[in-house]
Amino acid sequence: MLLREDAWMTGPRLADLLGVTPRSVRAYVTALNARVPDGDAVVSGAAGYRAGPAARAALAARAGAGSTPRARLHGLVRALLDDEAGIDVFDTAERLHVSEATLEADLVRIRSLLEGTRLTLERDRDVVRLRGAERDQRRLLSRLAHDEMDAADFPVDPFRFALAGGAIPPEAVSPFKDALVAALGGLGYYVNELAIADVLLHIAIAADRVASGRELEGADRPGDDSAPGADPVAEAIGRLAREQLGVELGAGDLAHLARLVLTRIVTPGGADPADLARAGLDAEVEAAVRAEVVQASSDYQVDLVDEAFILRLALHVQNLLRRAQEESRARNPLTRSLKAAYPMIFEVAVSVVSGLQERLGLRADDDEIAYVAMHIGGRLERSRRAESLLTATIVCPGYYELHEVLRSRVDHSLGQGIEVVRVITAMDPRESEIDSDLVLSTVPLPAAAERVVLIQPFLTEADVERVQQAAARLRRARRLARLREELSRYLSEDAYVHPLPDIGEEAIIRLLGGRLVEAGLIGEDYIENTIQRERLSSTAFSDALAVPHALQMTAQRTAIAVGVAAGSVAWGSGRVQVVALAAFSEQDRDAFQTVFEQLVEVFGEGESVQRIVRRGAAFAGFLDELVAVIDG
Hints:
Blueprint: H1 2-5, H2 11-18, H3 22-34, E1 42-45, E2 48-51, H4 55-60, H5 69-82, E3 87-88, H6 89-96, H7 100-113, E4 120-124, E5 127-131, H8 134-151, H9 158-162, H10 173-186, E6 189-191, H11 196-211, H12 230-245, H13 251-264, E7 266-268, H14 273-277, H15 283-300, H16 307-325, H17 335-341, H18 343-360, H19 366-387, E8 390-395, H20 402-414, E9 418-424, E10 438-441, E11 452-454, H21 461-490, E12 491-497, H22 505-518, H23 524-536, E13 545-546, E14 559-571, E15 574-583, H24 589-602, H25 606-614, H26 619-631
Parallel strand pairs: 8-9, 8-10, 10-11, 12-14, 13-15
Antiparallel strand pairs: 1-2, 3-5, 4-5, 6-7, 14-15
GO biological process, one term: regulation of DNA-templated transcription
Pfam families: PRD, PTS_EIIA_2
Keywords: Repeat
């Protein structure tokens, strides 16, 4: 948390976020500093704690990390995967320096791990063997590597785990990747660098297993047609595997890996929709995506209806369906940041995926939803930039071409965020002449002082920075002013809970939703729809705030039920301090974006959260502090 925050954090705030006491936080800091020679993993001061120079070294120096139950379990599975003849229970226990009872307990855990994988453990007295198709064994190895990545507190190399003790050195993966990206580019494909590590892991595992005599049985999957473009991609993978990894991949492996590449990391080059249609787009998928895009455009009042965008998204969804059929996933390293920084875009993506779930039986996790959000965000970026454009008046006394040069410089340096609507060359302009958001003046002005930014006649870098800061303050003030107006209508003491009990997401949703049901604002169906939305993707958009809500805007009147924890409550894979259950009516559709995005913004600022939470014992104190934070 300290590394992610990159700023001072108080002990009570850390305690709340972790769900422990401040005393435990002090103990954690002591333990972390004991891991490094100079004891500077965490720096303490009057402002609390912050990550020190050796913070990452302390994470990497966890005592006994290689002998933890998780590491031992994964090592045991690796041994079973590597040895077709099986492992001897007594010899393995001795090698791992554990008792036979401990190893037997690990085998019970492995059987649980194998549920739903089509793999089984067979035992003949003291020998245990892993049985199942090669494809399923590889999938298990990939899953273990991803589990190691997910469990780590800092980036780990999945290739070192997956290829440990094998024929393929982990160092060979990086040159192979560079060559593969170049080859795919030469075939006319755009490469998704965010997902390529996952596909490289599959290729590395395949090469390592083939080098050990474990080829994939037969064709990729009986009855499956090869994906369009599979042959040249398969040929490129085979050639590079020979040249870079020294492995000759068979037809089954090449077909399987080509399908992974085509469904996970590449899209056809060019923006011509006809090119996409030729890429083998299924008509049913295209129709479903088109219908959901049109619906989302109407529901959230955003401009998504564009032919090229719809076809590209449909191709992505088709690949997503293929991944789901193969019980594989494409991980997205930007999921967390996308969710926190662009909650509204992420919400539109959730809505689209929810509709596709009903139409196509689509199954998607947060990583897959984040990829859909990236498609949507790219489409909306132009319109969002237009909405945030501010107008400006330049005041520059006329002298030869000085004002024209200044305007040209302003357009060049600030044109993406500011539009110059007027240039005034008088020394004392009338206030009635200035109706823009900002005034960029080379002379002091008594009028419109709150909007004036003094600049030099020849624009400097410092001038540009001051104007950008003033523009950012103005945009924020406008957004938060709208939020304050909306919240004053939607919050009420009857729908306020403190302290919020730590009873799980669904129970909290029912608790807060019950307050709105009692007020006659929503029905029980809204609560059930909110729980359904929560199961699709967690609504914890920051470390402090969750905003559960239904995708349908069916409330009688828009209202927000708020719960504030005494410390924090479990939500999704983390913990939050405030839960705001939002119920929107059809009439307040316009307010959804304002409230949703700006509420997440306010509660994304650590110091502001603590101010609000500390005064949250009573509704009046919570509302006063929330308004004070909004007003700055």
